[in-house]
Amino acid sequence: MSETLIRNATIVAMDAEHGSAPFSGDILIDGATIKAVGGTIAAGPGARIIEGRGKLVMPGLVNAHTHSSETFLRGRYERMPLEIWLLYAYPLLMNDPIGERLLYLRSLLLAMESLRNGVTTFCDDFFDPPRHDLDRLATVFRAYEDAGIRANVSSAVMNVHTLDALPFAREVMPPELQARLDFGPPMTAGAYMDYCRSAFSSLHGKAGRLNFMIAPSAPQRCTPDLMAACMDLAVARHVPFHTHILETKTQAVTGPVLHGKSLIAYMHDLGLLKRNTTIAHSVWVSDEDMRLMGDAGVSVAHNAVSNLKLGAGIAPIRRLLDAGVTVGLGTDGVSSNDTSRIFDVMRVAGLVHSAAGPDHEKWVAAHEILTMATIGGAKTAMLEEVTGSLEVGKAADL
Q1: Which residues share a beta bridge with 216?
Q2: Which of 57, 73, 133, 313 is 20 to 30 Å from the Cα of 363, by its Cα?
Q3: Other residues' Cβ atoms within 10 Å of the Cβ of residue 251
Q4: Which residues pair with 3 in a beta bridge?
Q5: What is d(CA 112, CA 126) in angstroms, rounded to the nearest whole number?
Q6: CA–CA separation, 71 vs 54, rounded Å?
Q7: Which ranges constitute the DSSP H helices of 277-325?
Q8: 0.90 cut: is pTM over it?
Q9: What does pLDDT average to in each consecutive run of 10 residues of the chain (398 residues)?
């Protein structure tokens, strides 16, 4: 493959040597891989030259958590907390899923908008009820392959009835409506593992940049045996175990009511806090929760804009960082955010935590936000050896 030389640019590499400190230099790219970064670099004959003077070169942004299934629902709902919003964005008695052509275009649209705004990698917790269909998952992969984006994609799973995942829901739901919500036997752990293994064998690694990740929806929405099977396979395949925990105050109540402990403590007792664990949201975590998370090396996808739109709260990012938790930035789905731009999330995350208290030296700094949006996000996706910084041998995602 041919070489490309970006010369005389201002570079923010986000690597161990330079961090977020800018420096002037060149970047040599061989095909799709970074070959050299530094001062004046000589390119081979026939190399394409890109003049970088007056330009900034930085790693492509990583969207650590999104849902492509919301792409057509942008701006549809407002003034709703998550538990009410879900009834509109993901109605329990919904129509049939959209057709495969619209599914392709919906996925392609999210990828196009992401790339246009500097996002070169995202983690798509694709949700396509009421079943898991390998052909439909392949359609999403095909859209991302055609767009050229790097992605972790999953078909999110849950096998606990919605009414059993919410405290007191069955006590207030009319029996006749509960009867309408009888969806038959839930998916077993074995059936979902068969689906995941098929996805790994047919889709994982496609185009050298598309991976299948494993995404049990949440600990209150999945049985322990399903989550354990998901974790075992995630560890074996070195992919994220991507889940949602403690997004809302309702979920903060759910753990003690259903399990007599916080949902993080519940995950810990089940052996489900590991390096592979990536937690979307993590808003209502306690100091003990954060200690367990840091000790286990888990990651958090911080969805600052979505959490504000849905009134979920503000995640304790400074305390999470101090506890040793890796933090990336996510948009969440565009229905709970209204944009797929990580730069918007960076701005909100860079400002909102200044309201956390008067100790201004603990406010989140710009370089920390940039880390979350690049190499931190790559770590949440378990792709830090591939992308997230400008280093020799890494992908030229920039």
Answers
A1: 157
A2: 57
A3: 25
A4: 30
A5: 16
A6: 35
A7: 287-296, 304-309, 317-322
A8: yes
A9: 92 96 97 95 93 97 97 94 93 88 98 98 88 94 98 94 90 90 90 97 98 97 98 98 97 96 98 98 98 98 98 97 98 95 97 91 96 98 98 98
